[in-house]
Structure formats: structure tokens, C-alpha cells
Inverse folding.
């Protein structure tokens, strides 16, 4: 291709009309920052876990293919919340003895 053919699809960069410096965070770019998308943690925020949330169970989804579970298999137990809830289990106060393989109280 000739240089003229390569330049057909190129567009010029918009001219900077103001002599003021560009302010951080002010842009015409449609890309959103992580904070605008709801990210507010650091690298180690993944180890803290999620906030508990529970929603009411409204019904099973309609079965579309034979590989999906049959009716009744996706219904949660009425004894537990539908969603991620708080971990109410009591910590186990035992440790495993390496020599015998048995659990012993602390």
C-alpha cells in the first residue's frame, strides 16, 4: 500500500484549545476508573471476604436443556438463607496430632 492509502483511515488528534494544564480526572474518555466501577479495596481486600447478603428465593429457573438439573434440585432449604450469609459456625477448638492422626482438644 502507498502512504496515501495508509493515511485514508487516520484521524487527527483533537486540538488542545486551552493553555491551561489538563486536570487529573477530567477527560472525554468513555473508560471508567476502578473507583467508578465500585472497586474500593486493595490487593489484600480479597482475603477479607464478602459482605453477607441474602435475597428471597422466588423460584427455580425454567429448564432449557436436558443437562440442567430437574425441577426441585435447585430449591434451597427453607432452614437457611438464600445467598451468602454470615458464618455462624462455632470455631472448632481442636488440633490434629501429627503422630497419631487423631484430633485432640486444645
Amino acid at each position: 500500500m502507498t502512504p496515501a492509502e495508509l493515511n485514508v483511515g487516520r484521524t487527527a488528534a483533537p486540538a488542545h484549545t486551552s493553555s491551561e494544564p489538563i486536570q487529573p480526572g477530567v477527560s472525554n474518555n468513555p473508560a471508567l476508573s476502578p473507583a467508578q466501577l465500585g472497586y474500593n479495596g486493595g490487593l489484600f481486600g480479597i482475603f477479607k471476604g464478602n459482605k453477607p447478603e441474602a435475597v428471597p428465593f422466588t423460584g427455580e429457573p425454567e429448564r432449557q436443556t436436558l443437562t440442567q438439573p430437574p425441577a426441585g434440585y435447585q430449591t434451597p432449604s427453607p432452614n437457611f438463607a438464600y445467598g451468602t450469609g454470615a458464618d455462624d459456625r462455632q470455631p472448632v477448638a481442636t488440633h490434629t496430632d501429627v503422630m497419631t492422626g487423631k484430633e485432640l482438644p486444645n
